[in-house]
Amino acid sequence: MGTVLLVGTRKGLWVGRSDDERVDWDFTGPHHDMEEVYSCMVDGRGESPRLYAGSSSMWLGPQVRWSDDLGGTWQEGTGVRFPEQYDASVERVWQLAPGTEPGVVWAGTEPGAVWRSTDSGQSFALEEALWNHPQRPEWGAGFGGQAFHTILPHPTDPESVTVAISTGGVYQTTDGGGSWTARNQGIRAEFLPEGQQYPKFGQCVHKVTRHPSRPERLYLQNHGGVYRSDDEGGSWTYIGDGLSSDFGFPVVVHPHEPDTIFVFPIGAGDGRYPPGAKARVYRSRDAGDSWEELGSGLPDDFYVGVMRDAMTADGHDSAGLYVGARNGAVWGSADAGDSWRQLVCNLPDVLVVRAAKI
Prior knowledge:
CATH superfamily: YVTN repeat-like/Quinoprotein amine dehydrogenase
Oligomer: single chain
Distance between the termini: 6 Å
Shape: globular
CATH architecture: 7 Propeller
Strand content: 35-45%
Number of strands: 28
């Protein structure tokens, strides 16, 4: 047994390996040198793990690649491409997520579109009902661009998928993509004028997560606000009281405890670094009713941010947690955030981290 850690950056992908203790790490890279890697995934559904990377090259465009030997060699399919009838082209693959059925892989892209592969990533088909949604022309673009950054297939119902986009909000299908419904009731859009801050759609949602054993409960990090839904996005409750800031990008659920979640608050000002420049993870063990600050081993002089997909958990019994920063450093915790150590540094700007027990 062991652990694999994928670190996607603006200049390629690094693959880390460690044993179950997760103290000493060996990294290889860069894979896909000088390509932006906004998304990656460890797929453990087969007999052996398959690594995926969604990369983007200024010369070759966006591509989804996979490796069946932990990064030793890579293959690529036909890519993520709009059908000819649409005057659009994919710029980046922001999200990769395993489906609930064998061979299904989901992708979220910029511009804002969702795609489904039924052949393990060799080809992708556009979710046309979402692309043609009547609300799409009114979706804005967040500071980082307009992209579907969250895709959450229901763990037991393949017809149900929840997605999120900046700035459009949360949407859900329950009929296999035939139709999509906005699910944003209670989420505040603080950038809108007073009296208009709770629209049906248009929120700048930063990230959404859920635990497979309790799929009706979702957690959401917004552009100002952390929220919980107990009815799969039908309504949302603010749970940001007790945080140093309710602005941030990632939100992660514990792999074995559906009531335990983690966020990385940063200031909402132009600096986009943590309050007091102290890198801190906050943990709640009661679904957001209360929070505790975790910082043992994390730096106190930290003037960079952590992106929406740059925090993740592994599947070990003693849950590992990982944070990648825009200064090219990655920290890891083998005890669910109680203590931290730096695993690697001096990489390019970290965009995404993914980890798994193998």
